[in-house]
């Protein structure tokens, strides 16, 4: 097949002259490299701080990643390239840098504390000193072949004043200390992930733990405050992140996800895995009691063999057995956190997300096993109005969260455009000279016209700024109501 035909079949034309380069000042790309798929989402902030999606792309990745770890670089690069090209075509942007998610059974977390002694105790604590403390934590010893991915500060302590949840910028003291949740991973696995991105002709802007990204997109502040368990059920792993008092308290990766459920189902009803996946999505349930014994589905067999009729209740029983195993492992992690923290109260309960969370009646089964209120989380609250409905799905929670992580320190594009217009406008309005004679020359009249045009342009820019601030204030007041 020719290159031209391949391009047309994939639905994108990357060399179109209408494409422009990614504006890294305001635009971010989240890249979720999963066990079953790769998703790339391009976005920016609007004037209300919401995420405006400019384009996205998805590609299958069934051979490149296993249990969250890259095992085949060629297949993974192929999937990344396809997803990114589709996102480029939709956004009409050439992507250069991406925020990448990382997960996998090689990930582990540790709790530690560090401190620094301040040279000038009477001076207020600065952000630079907080960074110095974080960088010091990043130098702690980990196992051979591992490296630190995140050093996430929890409570701070300044001299004798402890349990400070926010960065103590503005306080003063001799000793600055903090507890940290440190996430580490295997160097080889991290390098393979980065290598795949570079082989796809992209740069890595940042690497973020996937459950942290998912939590960013589907949890509300009240849930993080009251205590919530984020459970992201992907194809190869189930990622866990526990929050309390707006602080990450515990993370874990279970090396089992939707794929293992599909394999069990394929073995149980004797069909190919691709057919088992379709059956799981369309007819599967985690609650067999919802199906009657008379409900059956005709399943296509191998070529030349007649279709077999399988009871829906039997399908659900097979699914439920494997799902229960995964949920019980999640419950072990929850109890481990509760024992270590001596804090059993999780008011927010459990929030399920990821493709596996769409299984019918899963929240009921999770609630039955853990005793915690359970809901399915979708990346809805942070997306701007008019976002394509397909993106408002648990399947895209991680990719949207990675996009949000990358946008944290970015200005919204409307304000940035306003600043740029002001900076680029070197023409200053000059008041008319009252002492000019009525018979001014033609050149002077043209100068007055230019000055008037400059004045009108300035007024227009200031109106735009005022409109922007008015919208922002209205949105802020809505949040206070």
Q: How is this structure best described in words?
A:
The longest helix is centred in the last third of the chain and has 39 residues, at 442-480. The chain is built from 13 helices and 20 strands. The N and C termini lie far apart (60 Å). β17 (296-299) and β18 (308-311) form a beta hairpin. The relative contact order is 0.13. With 481 residues, the chain is an alpha/beta fold. Among the domains are: 108-185, Dna Ligase, domain 1 (2-Layer Sandwich), CATH 3.30.1490.110; 221-377, Nucleotidyltransferase, domain 5 (2-Layer Sandwich); 425-430 and 445-480. The protein has helices at 3-10, 73-91, 127-137, 187-199, 210-218, 221-226, 258-269, 273-283, 312-341, 362-370, 397-407, 413-424, 442-480; strands at residues 20-21, 28-33, 37-45, 51-60, 65-66, 69-70, 93-94, 97-102, 108-117, 146-158, 161-164, 175-186, 203-209, 228-233, 238-244, 247-254, 296-299, 308-311, 349-353, 374-376. 40% of the residues lie in helices and 25% in strands.
